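Researcher: Let's try something more involved. This one mixes different molecule types, so please make sure each is placed in the same coordinate frame as the others.
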Amino acid sequence: MKYPAHIYAKALAEVIVAAKGESGAAQDAIVRRFIALVRQNGDEAHLRKLVEEAARFVRGKSGVRKMTIETARSLPATQKRALRALTKQGDVIEEKIDPELVAGVRVLINDELQFDGSLKGKLDKLFQ
Amino acid sequence: MSYEIIEKLKREIEGYKEKLEWQEIGRVIEVGDGIVKILGLRNAVSQEILAIETTQGTRAALALNLEEESIGALVLDDFLTIEVGDTVKRTGQVLSIEVGEELIGRVVNPLGVPLDGRGPVFKTNAKPQRNPLEGHSPSVLERESVNTPLHTGLKAIDSMIPIGRGQRELIIGDRQVGKTALALDAILNQLNDKTRRTPICIYVAIGQKESKIVRIAETLKKFDALKYTIIIAASASSPAALWYLAPYAGCAIGEYFRDKGQDALVIYDDLSKHAWAYRQISLLLRRPPGREAYPGDIFYLHSRLLERAAKLSKEKGGGSLTALPIVETQLGDVTAYIPTNIISITDGQIYLESDLFYQGLRPALNVGISVSRVGSTAQTKAMKKVAGKLRLAHAQFRELQAFVQFATDVDEATKKKIAQGQKINEVLKQEDLAPVPFEKQVCVFYAVLNNYFENVAVEDIKKTEYGLLDYLAKLHENDILKPIRDTGDFSDATEAKLKEAIMRFLTK
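Model: All components are placed in one shared frame. Result:
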C-alpha cells in the first residue's frame, strides 16, 4: 500500500465527520473522490479494510458504539428484543450467526470488549 | 472405560465455577516472522503476555511495541498457526520463569520448558517461585564491593586477571579461540574450590548448535559438574524470540540463588548472537535502525542485563551473581559496535587472540589488553604475594623478545630474562578441561618466578610442572597445599616448606 491503512482511514473519517449535515450529493462526492484516490494509488484491494478502519475512527469520534451480537442460530423475536433493550440509542448493531458457538450468546463492543456467554467459550475454559 | 471418562467429565463440570465478565480483546491484523500486530487491547502493558487464540490452540506472545492504535508483539510459540483475525486476550502477567533448586542439573529452554527428556522440572502440585525475566538490578545500598575470588582454574587468569564473585568479566575473541572452553573450565574448577561455597553455574547457550550444547552437557556430566549447573538452551534452530529471552531467563534463575544468599555464575554464550536476534526483532517491529542496523536501545539491552550481576551486602544475604558474557569478534576487531558496548559495561575483559592460539599458547590470552578492574581486591593474599610481579615479568619478556629479534649479540642478563619468560609462557599454557586448583597454581608460580626452573629446559617445563604438582599433592598435601587452600595466605613458614620441597624435588 502506498500509505498505511490507518492514514487512509483517518483521512476519510475526518472528512466524513466534517461533512456531517451536508447534502447527500456532497457526501457521495467525498466517497467517489476517496475511491478514486485509492484506485489511483493501486490500493483498491484493501478498500474493505480501509472502510472498516474509517468506520472505527468515525465511531470513536462520535461516541457511537458498534455492538456485534453473535449467536449459534437465529434468535426468536422476544429474545432479540430483550438483547436490543440493553443497547443505547444510536448504537450500530450487527447480528451474526456462528454455529461454532453451539449455544448461548457472545457480545462484542467496538471489537474491543467481549462478553462470552457461549457454550463454546465455557467448554474451551473447562478443557484449558 | 468410557463410563470412567464420563464420570471424570461429570466431576470436572461439577467443580467448574464460571465468572462471566467483560473481557478486553484484540485482533491480529498482521503476522510475519515471529511478530504479530494486534489491533485493540488498549490497556495492555509493555512486556505483558498476550494469549492468541488460534484454531490449533492458544499461543503466547509478548507485547513489545505499544503504539497509538496497535500493539507489536513477539510470538513465543509456533507462529505459523496464527492467522489474521485471530482473537487476542490479555493475561495480566509479565514474562517470568519458574525458579528453584529443582532446575539444577537440568537443560531447559528460556521459558523453563525441559529439553533433556527427564520429565517436568517441578512436581505437579508444586508452586515454584516465579522470577520476572526483566528484574530490577540491586540498588547501590544493597551491594558491596567484590571481595571473594571466583577461581577459574586457569593459571593465566587467576594470576593476572582475577575474577571476583559478583563481577562481570567479558570473554572476547574471534571464533574458535577457546572462549567456551575457558568458560567451561571455570565451571569445572568450582569443584576444586573446596573452602568456598560452590556457586550454581548457569550456562546460557544463545544460537549455538544443538550438537555443541549436547557436547557441553556431556562434558559437564562426565566431570560431575552438572550437579551444580543449569543449562539454558536457545539453540540455532529456535526462533529469535528465544535467543532474545535466553540471557534474561538465565539471569532470573541466577537471581533466585543470589537473593537466597548463595553464589551464582552465569555464562552468556554469546551476546553478539543475542544482539543479532534483538536487531532482527526490532527491524521486524519497524523500530528505527541505527548503527549497523541495530536499534537505538541495543546498549541498554545489555547494560540492564549485566547490571543485575552483583555482590549483595551482608544485610541482603551476601549472595552474588557473577556474569561472564562472551562476545565473538570478526578478525580480531574489538572496536566494532557490540564489543565496545559490552567492554564499557563490564568490569574487565579477557581477550583471546587467534594468532596466539595458533602459536600454541592456550588459553590464547593477550595479557596486554586483558584486564580485570575489580578482581584484584578479591584475589587471595597467597596469589597476590606470589604472582604480583608476574604481569610485569611477562610484559618485560614480550618487550625483550621483540627487541632481541633484531639484535645480534645479547648479554647474559637479557638471555636469562628471555629464558625465564619462555618458561613463564610454558607454565601459563594449559590443556582444555584441566583446571588447576589455586593452591597448586601458587606453588608453580612460586617456583618459576623465583628461578627454581633455571636449569630445566623450556621443552621440559610442562613435564617438570606436572611432576612437581604430583609430588606436592602426594607428599605435602597437609603441610603446604592445605594451609594455602584453607587460609588463602602464603605464610613464611609455608614458603620455607615449599622452598625445601621444590629443592628436594629438583635434586631427585
